[in-house]
UniProtKB/TrEMBL annotation:
This is SCP2 sterol-binding domain-containing protein. Residues 8-100 form the SCP2 domain. It comes from Halomonas pelophila. Pfam families: SCP2. Gene3D superfamilies: SCP2 sterol-binding domain. It comes from the Bacteria. PANTHER family: SCP2 STEROL-BINDING DOMAIN-CONTAINING PROTEIN 1, STEROL CARRIER PROTEIN 2 SCP-2 FAMILY PROTEIN. InterPro entries: SCP2_sterol-bd_dom (IPR003033), SCP2_sterol-bd_dom_sf (IPR036527).
Amino acid sequence: MSDATLDKLKRRFDADAASGMHEVFQFHFSDVGDHYLVVDDGELEVHEGEHDDPSVSLSLSSETLKGVMNGEINGMSAFMSGKLKATGNVMLATKLSSLFPSC
């Protein structure tokens, strides 16, 4: 994941939406390696690599993530078409759009 993408995620992070949340989102990118987000009661940390015990793991390309995050790709459609694979607490993936709103 590029620094620009990470910076954009950090800027878009809605701390209020993450209040009371204690979760780890693992991303296995097919084109840029592994990264994970730690959301801890309104705080966000972004790390490179693999977390030992993520809440949810998502496998996708960085382009698919960008499309989902900016609303060009429907997350459920990406999942159904195989562009996005999820394991663990899959319902957490649906919270990404509220944690990182596009506006």
